[in-house]
C-alpha cells in the first residue's frame, strides 16, 4: 500500500483530495495539520494517521512515506503567507530529505507569472515575476523544492492551478456575484477585445495530483487551467438561466474610470461595494489566456470536467438554492 503524506489536509483542496484517496482504499495517508481539534472531513480513517505540525519542530520522524503532497498554503496576511508558504516548505523539505521520500508533488499557483492581465497568453515558459506577496512566496517555495529535489535525486512535479472552483451545494459560492449580475440584467461588457476567464474545477486538480502519484518519472512543472472566453461564459450562464444574452457594451476607458473611482471612494470612506471593485473589473477585462494544454501534450493527462459543465452546474445549484 502506497504511503502518502499530505500537508494542508484540512483545507479546501486537501480535505477533498483526502476523501477521494480514502475512497480508493489503495493508500495509507498521513494527514498533516497544525490543528486537529475540528477536522473538516468525515471519512473512514482506517488507513489514516493524523499528524500534528509543530511550529518549531515540524513533523515527527517516527514513520516513513513514499510520496509527499505539499498543499499547505496561505493568503491571509503577509506574516502568515511568509511563514506558511516559505518556512513550512523549508521544514517539509528537510523532513523529505531526512526520511528518503521518493517523490514530492507541490501545488504552486499561476500567480507566479508576470504580466498576467497584459499578455495574450501565458504558459510554463513565460517569465516568472509575481506582483504579490502570495505569488512571490509560491515562486520561492517552488524554486526551493526543485533545487532540493534535484540535489537529493528526488522525483518531483509542480502543478500550478488557476482559480479553483467547486460545484458543491455548499459555501463558498463560487462566481455567485458574477452569475447574479447576469441574472439581474446588470452585466456589461467593456471594450471589444477577447477577454478570458481562467478557472479550473477541483475535480480536475484532484485528478492531476492523483495522475502524478501514479506516474513514475516527472521532474516537470505544469499549469492546470481550463480557460473560456468571457463572452462564451456569459452566454452559457444566460442560456442556463433562460434569459436574454447581455449585449450592452461600454468603452473600456469608461469602465476603468468608474471602477477606479469606486475603489478610491471605498478607500477614502471605508465603504465597500460588492460590485464596483477594480479587481472585478480586471477579471472581466482580462486579455490573458493561461494555457493549460502542456500537461496533456507532455504526459497524456486529460481534463475530466470542462469549465462549461462547471458553469452550468453552478447555475443549476444556485437556482435550487434560490440564490439567483
Summarize the entry for a quick read.
The chain contains 10 helices and 15 strands. The protein is α/β, with parallel strands linked by helices. The chain has a domain at 2-161: Rossmann fold (3-Layer(aba) Sandwich).
Can you describe what's shown?
- There is one protein chain.
- The protein has a domain at 2-161: NAD(P)-binding Rossmann-like Domain (Rossmann fold), CATH 3.40.50.
- The protein has a seven-stranded parallel sheet, sandwiched between helices. Strands 6-15 form a two-stranded parallel ribbon.
- The protein is globular and about 60 Å long.
- Helices cover 40% and strands 18% of the residues.
- Helix 1 (12-24) crosses helix 5 (202-214) and helix 6 packs parallel to helix 10 (307-320).
- It contains ten helices and 15 strands.
- Helix 2 links the parallel strand 4 (67-70) and strand 5.
- It is an alpha/beta fold and 324 residues long.
- The chain starts with a strand and ends with a helix.
- It has helices at 12-24, 78-98, 133-151, 176-183, 202-214, 230-241, 252-269, 278-284, 294-299, 307-320, and strands at residues 2-7, 27-33, 48-52, 67-70, 103-107, 121-122, 155-161, 163-165, 189-190, 196-197, 199-201, 220-224, 228-229, 249-250, 289-290.
Amino acid at each position: 500500500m502506497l504511503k502518502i503524506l499530505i500537508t494542508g489536509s484540512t483545507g479546501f483542496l486537501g480535505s477533498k483530495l483526502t476523501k477521494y484517496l480514502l475512497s480508493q482504499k489503495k493508500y495509507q495517508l498521513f494527514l498533516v495539520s497544525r490543528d486537529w481539534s475540528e477536522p473538516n472531513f468525515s471519512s473512514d480513517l482506517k488507513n489514516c494517521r493524523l499528524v500534528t505540525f509543530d511550529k518549531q519542530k515540524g513533523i515527527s520522524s517516527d514513520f516513513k512515506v513514499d510520496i509527499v503532497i505539499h498543499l499547505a498554503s496561505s493568503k491571509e496576511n503577509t506574516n502568515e503567507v511568509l511563514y506558511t508558504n516559505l518556512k513550512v516548505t523549508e521544514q517539509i523539505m528537510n523532513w523529505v530529505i531526512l526520511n528518503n521520500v521518493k517523490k514530492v508533488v507541490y501545488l504552486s499557483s499561476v500567480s507566479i507569472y508576470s504580466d498576467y492581465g497584459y499578455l495574450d497568453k501565458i504558459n510554463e515558459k513565460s517569465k516568472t515575476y509575481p506582483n504579490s506577496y502570495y505569488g512571490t512566496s509560491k515562486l520561492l517555495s517552488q524554486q526551493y523544492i526543485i533545487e532540493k529535489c534535484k540535489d537529493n535525486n528526488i522525483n518531483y512535479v509542480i502543478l500550478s492551478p488557476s482559480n479553483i472552483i467547486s460545484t458543491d451545494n455548499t459555501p463558498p459560492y463560487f462566481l455567485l456575484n458574477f452569475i447574479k449580475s447576469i441574472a439581474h440584467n446588470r452585466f456589461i461588457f467593456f471594450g471589444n477585445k477577447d477577454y478570458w476567464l481562467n478557472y479550473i474545477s477541483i475535480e480536475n486538480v484532484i485528478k492531476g495530483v492523483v495522475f502524478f502519484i501514479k506516474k513514475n518519472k516527472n521532474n516537470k512543472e505544469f499549469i492546470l487551467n481550463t480557460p473560456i472566453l468571457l463572452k462564451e461564459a456569459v452566454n452559457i450562464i444566460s442560456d442556463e438561466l433562460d434569459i436574454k444574452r447581455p449585449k450592452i457594451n461600454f468603452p473600456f476607458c469608461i469602465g476603468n474610470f468608474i471602477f477606479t473611482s469606486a475603489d478610491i471612494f471605498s478607500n477614502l470612506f471605508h465603504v465597500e461595494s460588492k460590485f464596483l471593485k477594480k479587481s472585478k473589473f480586471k477579471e472581466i477585462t482580462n486579455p490573458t489566456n493561461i494555457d493549460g494544454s502542456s500537461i496533456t501534450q507532455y504526459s497524456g493527462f486529460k481534463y475530466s470536467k470542462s469549465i462549461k459543465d462547471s458553469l452550468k452546474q453552478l447555475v443549476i445549484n444556485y437556482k435550487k438554492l434560490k440564490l439567483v
